[in-house]
Design goal:
This protein is of the alpha/beta class. Helix content is 39%, strand content 14%. The relative contact order is 0.14. Bound molecules: zinc ion (2 copies).
């Protein structure tokens, strides 16, 4: 059966078996969905096979102007990227943080499906978006190690996977970039940060991470990866211990950015 289907043309297969949206589970016509998309827009190309038109419209990619340090998009859509007031005041251990889109709408739904409903199949399009974001903001030659923000072993057992690791696992190897999901570890259990204020989050996360083998980090150009950047307390704390372990620099890539 599969063999026969593979021989049929794609439009014919889609007519009989229209794709089901990975987010809202409705069937949609991906041929229609691709009409009117900008051929030069890589995000459309990546998402048409997975998300219906309405869910695709609910993705809110981050565009300039944003904070050149933490990536926070500015409300005013005019002007160049510059440093936001929070980055001018607070200490950041990472060099720059960038995200694919705003943590809202269908991107938030997709991340919730992955993390809380364990719909790991959705990591395929999400990982493609993470890859696209990587190539949009970094030159591959400037990064030599991808590190995913670790989960505490108790959370990892409960969830069964680390969502940050799923965002990079597929393409890191293809692109020839080393991937390390073990050296940085979450040594202390922390309560979920969702209800905490910015200052409480910073306090809650302090000392939660450690580097097991500093020699694996020393002198490396590290890109730290997580699913969501909320206040930045988690990635900043990870960046602090990675820098202490001797990283040349730490940059941050997240799929989503809370605003
Ligand atoms: Zn949908
Ligand atoms: Zn900033």
């Amino acid at each position: 059966m599969i063999h026969i289907l593979q021989r049929l043309s794609q439009p014919f297969v889609y007519a009989i078996f229209p794709p089901m949206c990975f987010i809202c589970s409705t069937y949609y016509d991906s041929r229609e969905a691709s009409i009117g998309t900008d051929a030069s827009d890589p995000v459309s190309d990546l998402t048409v096979p997975y998300f219906c038109e309405s869910c695709r419209e609910g993705l809110l990619p981050i565009a300039s102007p944003f904070c050149s340090r933490c990536g926070l998009p500015f409300i005013s859509r005019e002007g160049d990227n510059h440093t936001c007031s929070e980055c001018l005041l607070g200490k950041k251990y990472y060099r720059k943080a960038r995200a694919f889109g705003i943590y809202d709408g269908s991107l938030m739904e997709a991340i919730h499906l992955l993390k809380y409903r364990k719909k790991t199949s959705i990591s395929r399009p999400l990982s493609a978006l993470a890859r696209e974001t990587f190539f949009r903001f970094w030159d591959i030659n400037t990064i030599d190690l991808l590190v995913s923000v670790p989960l505490h072993v108790k959370r990892l057992r409960e969830r069964g996977f680390n969502q940050a690791h799923l965002l990079i696992r597929r393409w890191a190897k293809q692109e020839g970039i080393s991937l390390d999901g073990l050296t940085l570890s979450r040594s202390r259990w922390t309560e979920p940060q969702t209800s905490l204020s910015r200052a409480e989050r910073r306090k809650n996360i302090k000392g939660a991470f450690s580097v097991r083998h500093p020699e694996r980090i020393k002198g490396r150009k590290v890109l730290l990866v997580d699913d969501v950047y909320t206040t930045g307390a988690t990635v900043n704390e990870c960046a602090r211990v990675l820098m202490k372990a001797g990283a040349e620099f730490v940059d941050v890539l997240t799929l989503a950015r809370a605003v």
